[in-house]
Design brief:
alpha/beta, DHBP synthase, ten-stranded mixed beta sheet, 6 helices
């Protein structure tokens, strides 16, 4: 049965986030709120959990999963970032942007794009997500919670609990959040490329 952790969106209860962090440490997949929509998350180093996350979304190995990081310094541990890229990252973090960057050796090869060795990274601007990352102590592997065959992400914890009953270990319920995916910017080439227009305004990045 899926657990439900009802937390305050601006002042989440540490005890409940610690319980959620323990489930993630045990290899479970959770639904959590972000500044764009709810996301499915699991532990970066857990291969079985990552495979379960892909099955829930029904996406293959070519689909970019995203690392949720606490800040830019943590992000730079998992991606190669030059000065030009750093300036753009600084403009878009924290915020509803996902950046495609070349992965460092800290990212398990099975999680980066099979032919390009790239990974999606972002720093969410949501108190609950940030506090959960702090409680967990490391980045979380994530993907937008879009049900298979659909195009819109879920943002209602009641609907998520009903539709994913027994498929998720828990839902971290902070109420509804925006039902729009992140804006995706590919920084792995010589010039930034807007690959998906989402909640983040590209103009904020000068694009």
């Amino acid at each position: 049965m899926t657990q439900r952790f009802e937390v305050h969106p601006r002042n989440p209860q540490p005890r409940l986030l610690q319980q959620a962090a323990r489930l993630l440490q045990a290899g479970e997949v959770l639904a959590v709120p972000t500044d764009s929509s709810y996301a499915l998350v699991c532990r970066l180093e857990d291969k079985a959990a990552a495979e379960a996350l892909r099955r829930l979304r029904q996406v293959d190995q070519k689909h970019h999963l995203t690392l949720l990081c606490r800040d830019l310094s943590e992000l730079a541990t998992y991606a190669r970032v030059d000065n030009r890229q750093y300036r753009l990252l600084k403009l878009g973090t924290p915020g509803p942007y996902t950046f495609i960057l070349e992965a460092t050796k800290e990212v398990p090869r099975r999680l980066s794009h099979p032919s390009r060795r790239t990974i999606g990274l972002r720093v969410p601007d949501h108190r609950v997500t940030q506090d959960l990352l702090a409680a967990f102590g490391e980045p979380l592997l994530a993907t937008t919670l879009i049900p298979p065959g659909e195009s819109e992400p879920l943002n209602d914890p009641d609907e998520i609990s009903a539709r994913y009953e027994a498929l998720l270990a828990a839902v971290v319920d902070a109420g509804a959040c925006p039902a729009q995916p992140t804006t995706v910017i590919d920084l792995s080439g010589s010039e930034p490329v807007l690959t998906r227009q989402g909640r983040g305004d590209p103009a904020r990045l000068g694009l």
